[in-house]
Amino acid sequence: xxxxxxxxxxxxxxxxxxxxxxxxxxxxxxxxxxxxxxxxxxxxxxxxxxxxxxxxxxxxxxxxxxxxxxxxxxxxxxxxxxxxxxxxxxxxxxxxxxxxxxxxxxxxxxxxxxxxxxxxxxxxxxxxxxxxxxxxxxxxxxxxxxxxxxxxxxxxxxxxxxxxxxxx
Amino acid sequence: xxxxxxxxxxxxxxxxxxxxxxxxxxxxxxxxxxxxxxxxxxxxxxxxxxxxxxxxxxxxxxxxxxxxxxxxxxxxxxxxxxxxxxxxxxxxxxxxxxxxxxxxxx
Lengths: 168, 106
Known about the structure:
Chain B: This is Transcriptional regulator. The complex is a heterodimer. By secondary structure, chain A is α+β, with helices and mostly antiparallel strands. Chain A is built from four helices and eight strands; from the N terminus they run ββααββββββαα. The relative contact order of chain A is 0.18. Helix content of chain B is 62%, strand content 11%. A two-stranded antiparallel ribbon of chain B has the order 1-2. Chain B starts with a helix and ends in a 5-residue tail after the last helix.
């Protein structure tokens, strides 16, 4: 299924941010639910072939989400998200971290701040995610981890790269 | 002076130059014709791209041709592609989920 849905992916290595914009074929409220309800997050958050399982979730300001991304062989990668500010169906901000099954945050791994904004685009919803790392090495460490988790992607053509960095 | 490749692609004119050079090697004059900015401005962008080792100069007779350093571009490509793929995959799953739970249109 190929849609012509907006998808922008920008890395700013100066500001250590990653900005991802994506349009979805659904109303804003429904997309908001998919981002903020654990039973729905569990169905999409971990990239294939990993799956998501929520241990606990309390979606409110100063609440959290404690979850694991699970490899097909059963290896678990635990994550922790602290919710900071929530304005329903407009935006929320959070702080993510790596942790263990007990929810003890691993301070040696980078934490990133997330600002997730939901807007209408006609009948569709547009979600903008801005992920900010403390430093460039943090950002690179996360990518490195992704590689270690066997998510190495294939090289794509140069023109596709360019269109990604600079949709014109 | 060593620069970071990401500095090179932070600027829209430089990205456009990269796109031009992706098709063929070009002289600085030919490149400058594609832009409204001055020859000097284009030269400065080319200098930065050279410092980032994204383009290299090649002398052909009396002309200088700029060409793309494909290997270096791949470095960026690889790095970004990692991340992009993860998100793309995530969003595809969300698309599927939305399609299954979408309330019928009134």
